[in-house]
Amino acid sequence: MIQRRIVKPSSSFLSTLSTLPMCALLLASCGSSPGGGSGTAGTGSGAAGTSGSAGTSGSAGTSGSAGDSGGAGTTGGGATGGSIAPGGTTGSAGTTGSAGTSGSAGTTGAGGIGGSTAGTTGAGGRGGTTGAAGTTGRGGTTGTAGTVGTAGTGGMVACAPPNVTLPSGNDAVAGTRIQFNDNGGWCWYQDERAVVDKTAQKIVIASTASGGTRNGTNDVVVYDIATNTSTRKMLPSTLPTNNVDDHNSPAVLIRPDGKYMAMWSGHRIDCITRTSIFDGTNWGTEKKTDWAPYGCPWAGASTNMVTYSNPWYIGSSIFAAVRSVGTSPAFLTSTDDGANWSYYGRLTSTPQMGYVAGYYKYWGDNTGRIDFVGTEGHPRDVDNNLWHGYISNGMVYKSDGTAVNSLKDTNSTTTNAKDVSAFTKVFSTGSSIKGVQLNHAWNHDIVRYADGTVAIMGQARVAGTGTDDPDKRLFYARYDGSSWKLTYIVKLGTKLYPDEQDYTGLSALDPDDPHTIYISTFYDPRDDTTKSTKREIWRGTTCDNGATFSWTQVTARSTVDNIRPIVPKWDSTHTALLWLNGTYTTAQNYAMKVVGLVGPKN
Fold first, then answer.
1. By C-alpha distance, which of 435, 407, 411 is closest to 422?
2. Segment 141-155, tens digit of pLDDT
3. Which of 291, 232, 287, 571 is nearest to 413 (CA)?
4. Which domains does the chain have, with CATH numbers?
């Protein structure tokens, strides 16, 4: 079941896209196509230097023939060829096989996970430089550089972030900023808040308005990529509009028939999960699923009712995670694309400590698996760790594939669910990252990439910095199939508003590019010291599996905050980066616009 109906854009669409007044930001990563298995640049036997590539221009060529006797070097290729990066699709060692004195394998060689193929930007493997061909070596017989190859779990090569020059003046943006909605906000525990419909060439964006004539309404904007126009529709909701709250914001899903589904709940104000189906013109009647038969409101407080919605496909069924039973997440399921819903099972049974029994972020491939990262509670109530697991085939697993329990319950009071500590620990409270001891963690984002690696963005307080407005730091975690590795990113600055000591500008992963993250912070991540007056968006590029990042500024000299970035899944050659721009006073009172950049990665 391919829920998103994702297909490769047509050549006419790509041609149209390239002429639009869209994102001028060079959204290039270390590469955009898979990395290649083990292809080398030639098979000849002549010595051209130990790592030189053939030809004075180092291009892959399409028919380069061999010299009389020269070979491509002892390992034939431009550098020593990483174990997974390709040299190109069919390129031979050069058009005339003449080595030259400075032929290189490419100018900026990408590779590894998602790495591009050879030619002017191809080359190298795990850090191959540009190895020159030697002074007399010739090109190998007809040796091609490898076909296309699939990505591995490591092996990114050294590269640089986009070279972007921001315009002068205030509120500078590295590209053409699009305003999708003039009044909208979202929390970060409902996903996906935006989806790309590649079949219809649309981006579907959900948010909740605060103030003005649409106060408290849930909106869905459908942005037409080809025409650069947006159409906004109000969801038919029975939530009271005087109860403004960004926690009420919907998640959206594309069904196999191309229709859109929106799903939302109030913020602890009733026991109803709501859905509506968009038929291409209008949103249908609100469908209500009542949690009262499952115990709502749950023991502990009269406000222990439902919040958040996170629908994803597994096979032909939708599984939607909702904070619900005992303030832990539990799942509703639908076997008819959202027309009807039933209770499926509880994810965890962590005891409620303080406000809730944990916060969870989800990532689904809409095929067979949903990954999650959770906490024990709210960071003001609990000294949280971070825990990872995933759901597949009706079971819940640790990171390494060890089964923990069945997700399916006979009812909401008799459950198979385990405490969140039964899963794999990603971050351990009290750990030091880059010499900074951190505790009271929270989760921002999670993605499982096509190569099987999993990445998480999170934050934590610096130990000993108090509780009123603790010093909060951002970190990145990556699972390579055997262990989790953590990387310090940057200071996040003061709290977003007085009542929430741990609210920050947040961060996002690019689900189509494991090299790229986006962050919102006061601080320049290049030195962790230089501070702006408002929260700015930065793009981080890693070429060593997240060990280090280089940085490109997306917004600068802003007069209002830029917060809560998201990147909906698209494909390896396009990116939509969305965020909220404006003034955030509380979760119930904000003046934010939904804005972003849309266009090719390269």
1. 407
2. 333 333 333 333 344
3. 291
4. 35-152 (no CATH), 172-600 (2.130.10.10)
